[in-house]
Write a structure and sequence with these properties.
Elements: H1 4-30, E1 37-40, E2 59-75, E3 87-105, E4 114-119, H2 130-142, E5 145-149, H3 153-160, H4 180-193, H5 195-198, E6 206-212, H6 214-230, E7 235-239, E8 268-273, H7 274-279, E9 292-297, H8 305-318, H9 335-352, H10 385-388, E10 392-395, H11 406-414, E11 417-420, H12 423-429, H13 433-449, H14 455-467
Helix pairs in contact: 2-9, 13-14
Length: 472
């Protein structure tokens, strides 16, 4: 009996030590992003300069290097299809250094208080600012600050191999994409507490993040596993995602399909092209909730003509990639109008709590394939005026490209196609130009009333319709 108090004391001490250890682990996992170091890049040409796109907007562009010690994660438990994922920090000391490009209003009076941090896409082997390409008109006219973050290994290594930039980015280093999530968190946190340096003194009111395609997949993982514990961003825009996310670390299980977690604490806006919906039909199962919204844009391609023109304006100059001949014109559906609306809705959502409008889903037949109308265009989905008053068949993918190099083939397939109607068909649909403009305007007015396009883009769309040679 005399040993019982000692035994109980040992058990109490053991429980205390275990509790302290678990508390320390929990604190490490739940701690905010570590503070990164920022330094202004030296004068000279930087990769991906876009100053020529500012037009009359009083914007400036600067490049910074961001560096620090990054955390690596692994999943804590099962990564389920409901998106309610948990992440555990396995290390906190992986060094990194990479580049961020900042585009911001030159005058503080023109800043709307919103910063958009884009996870740059690296599918080409180089960082591409896809969401800048889609949203640049809205960013410039409304006074956002934009940050393009190169937070994946292949992107920064690709730029380092370019003769024109080898010296400038020689010290940049991302050893593994496992730290990409934390680099995003650290960049977002730097916007908040180092805005005097990064934004030239522009103090942010809200900080958003976005990503397209491969980046959207990683941002899906971020929204489900990292954002809930870091709480860095006020809203997330996911553009062109696949059915699931990406592993936090090698060895993690990964479900074939994943939705954004229904209990998200910040607004998450997902916007998909027809190609995304066709290829990854399970994303249509996304449920609109109080803080999750999902749109499907009928007739749109993963990388349409508007976007490809923007991408190739850099890749032709920096890398020597020319737009390939894909046999047919790229998809001309103005997806960017819906994405501009999505960005503004997301902004207002974070500022006022007012949720964006919902949008119908694309229709499927009993086999699960997307249904098409008599013109070969999809039925249902978010309807832009181009598909409601059509002058073409809008294909979401182009498979008639023949033998091309991989990147050219990818651009052709992802770029979709536009197959314009014959003159006789146009005449049968729209006997006069005034008839076409009237039908187009009715469709544009409906999209505007639904909140699926913005007033500024509505006005430009009507100008395009007036200038169109329809009927021929």
């Amino acid at each position: 009996m005399s040993t019982l108090p000692a035994f109980l004391a040992r058990q109490t001490l053991r429980r205390t030590v275990m509790a302290a250890s678990l508390a320390a682990i929990s604190a490490l996992a739940m701690a905010g992003a570590p503070r990164a170091t920022l330094e202004l890049a030296p004068p000279g040409d930087s990769y991906g300069d876009r100053a020529d796109q500012f037009g009359s907007a009083p914007f400036v562009e600067q490049e910074f290097f961001i560096s620090g010690q990054a955390r690596r994660y692994k999943s804590a438990g099962t990564l389920g299809s409901d998106g309610k994922w948990a992440a555990t920090v396995v290390s906190s000391n992986t060094p990194f250094k990479t580049a961020v490009i900042v585009r911001r209003p030159a005058n503080a009076a023109n800043f709307n208080g919103i910063v958009l941090v884009e996870w740059l896409n690296v599918s080409s082997g180089y960082p591409l600012d896809v969401d800048w390409g889609m949203n640049r008109e809205e960013i410039l006219r409304k006074g956002y600050a934009y940050i393009g973050l190169a937070n994946q290994k292949v992107g920064i290594e690709g730029v380092k191999k370019l003769e024109a930039y080898g010296d400038r980015y020689a010290a940049s280093d991302i050893s593994t994409d496992d730290i990409s999530y934390d680099i995003l968190s650290q960049a977002g946190q730097a916007v908040r507490d180092q805005y005097q340096v990064l934004l030239g003194g522009l103090k942010p009111v809200k900080v958003l993040t976005s990503g397209h395609s491969q980046s959207a997949m990683r941002l899906t993982t971020y929204a489900n596993a990292i954002q809930p514990q870091d709480n860095v961003f006020d809203g997330i825009l996911i553009h062109g995602r696949a059915a699931s996310g990406v592993r936090l670390a090698s060895g993690d299980n990964l479900p074939s399909t994943t939705v954004i977690r229904a209990d998200s604490k910040v607004p998450v806006f997902q916007i998909q092209s027809q190609m995304d919906v066709s290829a990854f039909g399970s994303t249509s199962k996304a449920i609109d909730t109080g803080l999750v919204r999902y749109w499907e844009v009928a007739g749109a391609a993963h990388a349409d003509q508007y976007l490809l023109d923007n991408i190739y304006s850099v890749s032709e100059r920096e890398v020597g990639f020319d737009q390939p001949d894909c046999g047919k014109p790229h998809n001309a559906m103005p997806f960017y109008m819906a994405q501009n609306a999505a960005l503004r809705h997301l902004t207002n959502w974070t500022l006022t709590g007012k949720a964006p409008p919902v949008a119908p889903r694309m229709k499927r037949n009993w086999l699960g394939s997307l249904q098409k109308d008599a013109h070969g265009n999809v039925i249902g989905g978010l309807r832009l005026p181009e598909i409601e008053a059509p002058i073409a068949t809008y294909g979401n993918a182009n498979f008639t490209t023949g033998s091309l190099a991989f990147l050219d083939l990818f651009a052709c397939v992802a770029g979709g196609y536009t197959e314009y109607f014959s003159a006789s068909k146009l005449k049968s649909l729209y006997p006069t130009h005034a008839d076409y403009v009237s039908k187009y305007k009715a469709a544009a007015d409906a999209a505007l009333a639904a909140g699926h396009i913005l007033p500024e883009d509505h006005a430009k769309a009507l100008q395009r319709a007036q200038a169109a040679a329809v009927p021929q």
